[in-house]
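Hello Y.,

Per our agreement to keep a running log of every chain we model this quarter, I'm adding this entry. I've kept the format consistent with earlier entries: sequence first, then predicted structure.
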Amino acid sequence: MAGPRRWSGGDSAPPRGRRRGRKGRTGLGWEHGSARLGMGGPRRLLLISNSTLHGGGYLGHCQQHIQSFLGQKVKRVLFIPYALHDRDAYARTAREKFESLGYGLDSIHESCDPVEAVRKSEAIFIGGGNTFRLLKALYDNSLIHEIRKRVLEDGIPYMGSSAGTNVATISINTTNDMPIVYPPSLKALGLVPFNINPHYLDPDIKRTHMGETREERIRQYHEEPNTPPVLGLREGTMLLVEGDKATLQGVTGARLFLRGKKPTEHEPGTDFSFLLNDSNPLNP
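Predicted structure for the entry above:
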């Protein structure tokens, strides 16, 4: 069993349930050890780039992955719709999809006690939308510590899509979203010791738009010291994490960015387990 993860840097005080300590190699305050955290079993994550793939319906492109991930033991999923303004409509969409897959769905915004809802959950799914709005709501409802405990110590499955994938990482620094609200910190759940850029787009050599490409923006992020790896997940791609093993799944691919190195291309099936080690020597 790994030792505790420690909080450092940035904020004037650590969020509830975290301790101060030295900075790890990421420079963002999390010290990651073994993937097996707590007695409940290894972490199990399905981090999806996007909820809807062009030409398909909501979660249609990944529904078989979802069923394989959740299995038959999970009966009900706790949905967190905080990334969108109309939570009722969002919950209806998610409930219809999960019920079609054989799972009941409870939306956390319908609960009078969100913390208790997390504590009683069998599995958690955080949907996409605006990542800043989502993270602020997680902090406002005191859910950061509770979700981490359920996933990393109790071992319940965690699914995220788009913004829900962003908040599963160290921070939301590599989101694509506008900061329409201001969370108390950009530090997120820290379920994995690196960052993800969902909806990753490749540069278009025929484009006339002169704004930065996604790759240029990630390079700017890595100009800052002690920044962790960034995995650019193209739409149609997802990362499956089971214990200390991480595997790229889906139909497209991913682009990996390491500070000070050229980005590399990776096809579905790639083993990204080395990214789960915070002392990864490939990240200078």
